[in-house]
Amino acid sequence: MTELDKLLRNNREWAERVRQEDPGFFERLSQQQSPRHLWIGCSDSRVPANQILGLDPGEVFVHRNIANVMSHGDLNCLSVIQFAVDILKVEHILLVGHYGCGGVHAAMTGARLGLADNWLRHVADVAQKHATLLEHVDAEPLRHARLCELNVIEQVVNVCQTTVVQDAWARGQELAVHGWVYSLSDGRVRELGMDVTAADQLMPAYRQAVAAMPIKDKRDE
Predict the structure, then answer these.
(1) Catalytic: which of 77, 101, 148, 160?
(2) Could you tell me whether strands 37-42 and 92-98 are parallel, antiparallel, or unpaired per DSSP bridges?
(3) Which residues contact 66 (CB under 8 A, 6 or more apart)?
(4) Is-contact 108 143, C-beta < 8 A?
(5) Ordered mean pLDDT values, 10 residues apiece, the chain (221 residues)
(6) pTM score of the predicted model
(7) What angle do the packed helices 163-170 and 140-160 form, to 10 degrees?
(8) CA–CA separation, 10 vs 1, rounded Å?
(9) Active site residue 46
(10) Does the active-site annotation cover 148?
């Protein structure tokens, strides 16, 4: 049996198991998607959005890329945000990084990965912007964790500054943007205090989140 045959078998077994547990599941799923959340996260295979949130298929709209970057020149991500906000009317955008991110580590250390180095320049820019803060973090694993968090905070800023989100807030649409980091070691999400529900909240939230960045210790539960 080939690897693809195994995957197809797994799919059949999963579909049958779901039908047995919830006979109407696929009929409901095929009618319409109405998620309340847009997840913008890392492509890392260890960070599955639905499982982490405990939600079924159809309950979270997802965009993923290396190191969970929201670049203003990325029409793919911008289109996802526009569709989620304007068409699906999601209420929450979750910008979710994760500790141990290989892309963030490469950007921090200058390791060369290939074409992805150009994409990770966005993360390297975050490291450069916060170089003074990061210099005060002695241990490399902890410095890596801090950069994972700072990258999320900066990407939340980028999301909030898109015309899509700005226009949604201007017309009074209920929409919140949140910055989280997921831990592979315990499966828990850490909040970064980066929660924005209106344009005038962005900079105060940003300054507070950066100021609250722990230098010597791991982030509290």
Answers:
(1) 101
(2) parallel
(3) 42, 43, 103, 116, 119, 120
(4) yes
(5) 90 91 85 89 94 91 97 96 98 98 97 96 98 94 97 98 98 98 94 97 98 83 47
(6) 0.92
(7) 60
(8) 12
(9) yes
(10) no
